Amino acid sequence: MPEHIPPPTEERVAYLESLVAQARTAAAVFTQYTQEDVDRIVKSMVLAGLAQAQHLARLAVEETRLGVMEDKTIKNMVATEFVYNYVKDKRTVGIIREYPDSGLVEVAEPIGVIFSLTPITNPTSTVLFKCIMAIKTRNAVVFSPHPNAWRCCAEAVRIMYEAAIKHGAPEGVFTCVAEPTLSDNVYLMHHKDVRLVDATGGRGASKAAYSSGKPALGVGSGNTPVYLEKTADLDMAVVDIITSKTFDNGTICASEQTVVIDDEIYDVALRKFAELGVHICNQAETELLGHTVIDPVKGQMQPMAVGQKATDIARMIGLRVKPNTKLLIAPIEGVGREYPLSVEKLFPVLAVCRAHSVDQALKLCMDVNHLGGLGHTAVIFSHDDDIVRRFGEAINAGRIIVNSPGSIGALGGVYNDLVPTFSFGCGTGGGNSTMDNVNVYHYLNIKRVARRTPAHMWYRVPNQIYFNMNAVENLRNIPSRSTLIVTNPVLEQMGHVDIVRRAMPSETVVRVLAIPDAEPEVKVVMQGVETLNAYAVDQIVALGGGSVIDAAKIMKLKYEFPEADLEELAAPFLDIRKRVVRFPTDKTNHARLIAISTTSGTGSEVTPFAVLTDKVRGRKVTLADYSLSPDVAIVDPQFVMSMPKGLTADTGIDCLTHALEAAVSVYASPFTDANALQAIQLVFQYLPASYQNPRDEEARTMMHNAACIAALAFANASVGVNHALAHAFGARFGVAHGRANALMLPHVIAYNASVPTKFRPSPNQRAFTAHKKYAMIADLLGLGGQTIEEKVQNLIAATEHLLDQLAVPRSIADLGISREEFERAMPDLAKIAFDDPSWQSNPRMPLVSELVELFWSAYRGRSVSRQREEMEACV
Amino acid sequence: MTTNEIVQEALGKLDGGRGEVILDFSSVSRIDSSDLRALDSLAQTAQAKSVKLALYGVSVPIHKVLKLAKPGGTGFSLCGC
Fold it and tell me: How distant is the Cα of B65 from the closest Cα of chain A, in angstroms?
């Protein structure tokens, strides 16, 4: 309870408590009602309100001495008929909306007990409106009307309540505080069972509602600027403004307050106002008005003028006007505290101001808007769409009414399709929680039932893949006017380029660009783009290992999209479908990319990845997008027959790592599994032979196919933590990628097969299956074992045996890296590995401490299967 | 049985001075304000006689009403849910 407001007496507290208790019980009972129940009750209330519209209007005018009975009758009818028209088909009980495509369902939950303050200016219409909203949403309301309007409001509540009860509403659903006081309001606002404070009235009521600490709908006062622009239909505008400003003697807070008129039409506009019974004040009369109807100290309208007729106001201040005068117009020179009449005036006095340009008019309207009208309402009369747009952008108002009366236009449903309301949200500008026309949805908690959406998966591969010996001959059927072969000098010397050149159609002009055999640098790529442009190339043939193919991918990207920003395109992302940076689509040039791999490991000929080295900035840039995938892949083993043994081993292990990681990836699918499992089988079957006997054509062919097939899997399922570790370690110690993978692989299988310390949130992961997947692979390879654990161990043992056959180093220590050096590097290694996006598809989310453990396991390099045997022996 | 009939029957049993009275709500599909008042009154009487009240077989919608309206304060326990 604020200190300056005395608490209610004990007797009064008991009375207020009884009102809330009734409302609480009613709200509880109401939760059982169906949509049909509430719709039936609402209709009966609307009919009762319509029948009593004039009666309530008369009571309101008699009690408040504000406004016009005839207009208040119309307001009561709008509050019932128009509101009913809006709400009658709305679902407000149970499931109110369903979105099958996104798996979302919205369910209505009533608020409970609402404490509602209603204003003196629109007393009965506001009550009617809120009663209908409350029943439609199954809420109970304790009303506290303005103290000078409580009798007419209590009568409105009674009429609504009786109609509602007659048609089955719960007892006590509406109660109304008799002879309400500020103490009552403060007590009720803070009541534990009141769930929402809904305050319609002045700024004070709104502020008190928000200060209560309860969820609140506090809507408040305005100061509506009007721009009468020179293209407007002047006759219509003048009638609309008079209609609106005189409606209920200007008591609607959305009514026009200051009209800014273009100079070109200013005089004729005032003449038209005068012709329709408006008194145009001279300078002295304007000053008189400003000093009398506006409080000079507070700078606010005087209560004695609110809701009074123009003639009565004139009489009050000694201004002589014709007996039929309906509105007083006061020309002012500017807007602000020094121009008293530029503030809100809820009576038929309207300020007008001349503008000499559109900009000046907009600024004047903004000044009015900022003088107590932020977030409320603004009006423009114009047929210039651009000016209407500029007005809408400049003015901060929840309702920007175009070519219609402000007050009735803002109420909604009469002149436009705004939601009918008697409560105007003014947004944060007006200190409110909403800028909407308050409606049934503000009287509901809307629950959202979110079903797990099936992950949208994909399987994207190059359009054409040619494989087996002499597959390069397929180039003959691919037409090209100008082709650039991108390769490296060694392959050129080996005669591989000549083989490709001979396979091209005779009409194709073929040129060759030999680039260094290393991860491509920005400079090299840009030189390649220059060459592509110089020869107006329509086809690029990338002949080489991963580095050459990656370089060609990026050359093509920059050739087709010269504006592409490689740095930006390399921005990290969590989900490729939701990435912030999109690759460009509008091509400047067109070039087909044909990739011919000369190693059996990276699979770059079918993947959407490319790595670029930026030596200037000292960093690597990884690009990933399916637009990078080559258009055609040629998997011809003749280009790998002469691969040295070391390279055969390293690239073969890289291929196995791709397949194993894709198989257990959280993005694995039946499509990628088909590739991954096939590749694993091929590697175990053919890699030893390919390594031992380089001229074994079948083994070479199958390993070349395996590399491509594994790449098809990881191009769509990604890799895992093995690659994150290998990237960090390989870069730090200059170890070849495949060899680095080999050092980690047995340890990573063991790690992934054990229960994760932490699961990574991923809709793709329906269950933890990595250990089962490994066991399935063991079965596929015929490794034996009874339990999943045994099968996993057998897979690890088989992998270690394969590594032994390939004579690759089995520990980091074997590479000659000292323990101290490795320990010094560890913080960086762990950080870089954790930053690596590769692990994000890993079935087990690695903690940094676990990455450190894995690195040390790889350092020691003890056989994982041997360690287990030793442990079991100890047990 | 209606809620009112259940309450009347329970009131009779309160006089027996047993330690706990269980009200079978499994046939009650909807309750109104008067039912809640009756439950409230029953809870007060039971408390005066040191008898515990428990509701059995309460449907989900009625459970929600009871949670919101809290008849008898915390005088009821819900069992067999």
Answer: 5
The residue of B41, B65, B68 whose CB has the most chain A CBs within 10 angstroms, and thus the best one to mutate to test that interface, is B68
CB within 8 Å: B33 and A32: no
Other Cβ atoms within 10 Å of A311 Cβ, number: 18
pTM of the model as a whole: 0.83
Residues of each domain in chain A carrying CATH 3.40.50.1970: 464-638
CATH superfamily name and code, A224-404: Aldehyde Dehydrogenase; Chain A, domain 2 (3.40.309.10)
Tens-digit pLDDT profile for residues B9-18? 888 888 766 6
CATH 1.20.1090.10 location in chain A:
644-874
* Cα A529-A533-A538 angle, rounded to 5 deg: 100
Residue A525 has pLDDT above 70, yes or no: yes
Cβ distance A25 to B33 less than 8 Å, yes or no, reads yes
Q: What is the pLDDT of residue B74?
A: 59
- Angle between helical axes of A123-136 and A35-51 (0-180°, round to 10): 160
Give residue A618's pLDDT: 62
Beta strands in A523-602 (DSSP E): 539-544, 592-597
Domain with residues A10-219, CATH architecture: 3-Layer(aba) Sandwich (3.40)
Of B30, B33, B66, the CB nearest to A26: B33
Please state which CATH number belongs to domain A644-874: 1.20.1090.10
Cα–Cα nearest to A328, from A356, A294, A298, A300: A294
| Partner B contacted by A27 (CB < 8 A) | yes
- The answer to whether B65 contacts A172, with C-beta atoms less than 8 Å apart, is no
- pLDDT tens by residue, A184-203: 999 999 999 999 999 998 77
Q: Which chain A residue has its CA at the smallest distance from B32's CA?
A: A29
CATH (domain of B11): 3.30.750.24
Contacts of A532 (CB under 8 A, 6+ apart): A484, A540, A555, A556, A559, A589, A591
- Written as one letter, the residue type at A567 is E
| Three-state SS at A421 | coil
CB contact under 8 A, B31 and A32: yes
HSE-CB at A66 with a 13 A cutoff on CA atoms is 23
Residue of A nearest to B31 (CA): A29
Model confidence pLDDT, tens digit, residues B11-49: 888 876 668 888 999 999 999 999 999 999 999 888 888
Residue B45: domain span: 3-79
* Total number of domains constituting chain B: 1
Residues A354, A359, A360, A362: is their CA dihedral positive or negative? positive
Sign for the pseudo-dihedral over CA of A533, A534, A535, A536: positive
Q: Which residues of B touch A31 (CB under 8 A)?
A: 61, 64-65, 68
Compare all CA atoms of chain A with the CA of B62 and give the residue at the minimum distance. A32
Q: Please, where in chain A does CATH 3.40.605.10 lie?
A: 10-219
Choose, out of A22, A29, A174, A445, the residue to mutate when testing the contact with B (most B CBs < 10 Å). Answer: A29
Q: In whole angstroms, what is the distance from residue A55 CA to residue A155 CA?
A: 10
Which CATH code is given to the segment(s) A464-638? 3.40.50.1970
